[in-house]
Design a protein that fits this description.
alpha+beta, D-Maltodextrin-Binding Protein, domain 2, 2 domains, eight-stranded mixed sheet, binds 2,5-anhydro-1,6-di-O-phosphono-D-mannitol, binds magnesium ion
Length: 354
């Protein structure tokens, strides 16, 4: 008998899941490529800090934001392993404007943000790799490739540099895996938002508060004192914390900016690879996510690959509380002849609101 207690690996956990549900092993091949990419991004992040490679690349992405060298490296790393896996038809990356065609016979669509929280990079603060996975229609014709979050089969995020991998499987929960010194992901732990409000937190860019709609500002004034406040400037990191402590992360629409050019009525975060990803993870952890209209983020049918959305995600009770306010606001606006508060266009670059 082996005297050592050996741990279950992530792949073994996934193998059991696939076999139990009579699913193919293709998903394992895909996950292997995602996990390998994640480990390499982590490796490059560590190296970059040592080699002073944390600066800007001098180019801009589809959002008009400057790309850090690590953003590009992370994107190229993910693409390399996705291509090698042969499992992906088409990928959507925050760093590339158009769809990225891979293997027309593949089974999956991947939507990813290779390095979320870029502003943290130059300070060597934590960042994340976010991804959602859709699956092709196996019977019949393939008609569209931008799936609703509700149609994802899995979504996850990898925290850098801590190396904690969160993976949510459709109707099978949200799980976290730790990377141990052997380099293997072990000990799947099921994660659910805590029910007790004792640890609940609020997370949002407080510097933007006066730019939110009046009802959202009122909700904050009434509710913020009940909670601790935390914000790192990286969705993956803030949301990771929230999964353990509960509460709500929000990035509301910017509609009352003193410089109207800086309003963002559509929100700032990207639907496909930020909002829908954390909404899926939250749902599998017992929570929920809504947009500025109070609609379930998982039900939004994306129209554009890089479309933006406002986001309110976290413990069900807190998100439901603000959802009522958001819905009332929509009803009031409709009753007001459809007038939308500060319905001015955001600046073309989508740059920061400050
Ligand atoms: P990124 O994907 O370019 O790094 O930007 C997305 C980030 C989120 O991670 C974070 O929640 C938000 O933008 C922070 O925005 P702000 O600096 O306006 O608070
Ligand atoms: Mg991001």
């Amino acid at each position: 008998m082996n005297p050592v207690k050996l741990e279950e690996t992530m792949m073994h956990f996934l193998l059991e899941h696939q076999l139990k549900n009579r699913r193919s092993l293709n998903f394992l091949i895909l996950m292997e490529s995602i996990v390998t990419a994640a480990k390499y991004i982590q490796h490059y992040y560590d190296l970059a800090a040592l080699q002073g490679n944390l600066g800007e690349a001098g180019s801009t992405n589809v959002q008009g934001e400057s790309q850090m060298r690590l953003d590009l490296l992370a994107h190229q790393t993910v693409m390399h392993y996705l291509a090698e896996s042969n499992q992906v038809i088409e990928a959507t990356s925050e760093e590339v404007t158009e769809e990225i065609l891979l293997n027309e016979d593949g089974r999956y669509f991947l939507y990813f943000d290779p390095l979320d929280g870029s502003s943290n990079i130059k300070h060597s603060l934590p960042v994340g790799f976010l991804f959602g996975i859709g699956k092709r229609m196996l019977g019949g014709e393939e008609d569209y490739r931008l799936r609703r979050g509700r149609e994802f089969i899995a979504a996850g995020m990898f925290l850098i540099p801590s190396g904690i991998f969160t993976l949510s499987l459709k109707d099978a929960g949200t799980w976290q895996f730790l990377l141990d010194s052997t380099g293997v992901y072990i000990r799947p732990t099921r994660i659910r938002f805590p029910e007790s409000p004792k640890s609940w937190e609020l997370s949002f860019n407080a510097g933007n508060t006066t730019t939110f709609s009046t009802p959202v500002q009122q909700w904050i004034a009434e509710n913020q004192p009940k909670y601790n406040f935390r914000y790192t400037g990286a969705l993956a990191v803030d949301f990771h914390r929230l999964l353990h402590n509960g509460g709500m992360f929000m990035y509301p629409a910017i509609v009352n900016h003193p410089n109207a050019q800086k309003n963002r009525p559509e929100g700032k975060l990207r639907h496909m690879y930020e909002c829908a990803v954390v909404a899926f993870i939250a749902h599998e952890a017992g929570g929920m996510a809504v947009n500025e209209a109070g609609d379930d983020v998982l039900e939004i049918q994306p129209k554009k690959r890089h479309q933006r959305s406002a986001l309110y995600v976290g413990s069900r009770e807190v998100v439901e509380s603000i959802r009522e306010v958001l819905r009332d606001h929509v009803r009031a606006q409709k009753g007001d002849g459809g007038r939308v508060e500060a319905a001015k266009e955001p600046d073309a670059t989508g740059a920061g609101v400050h």
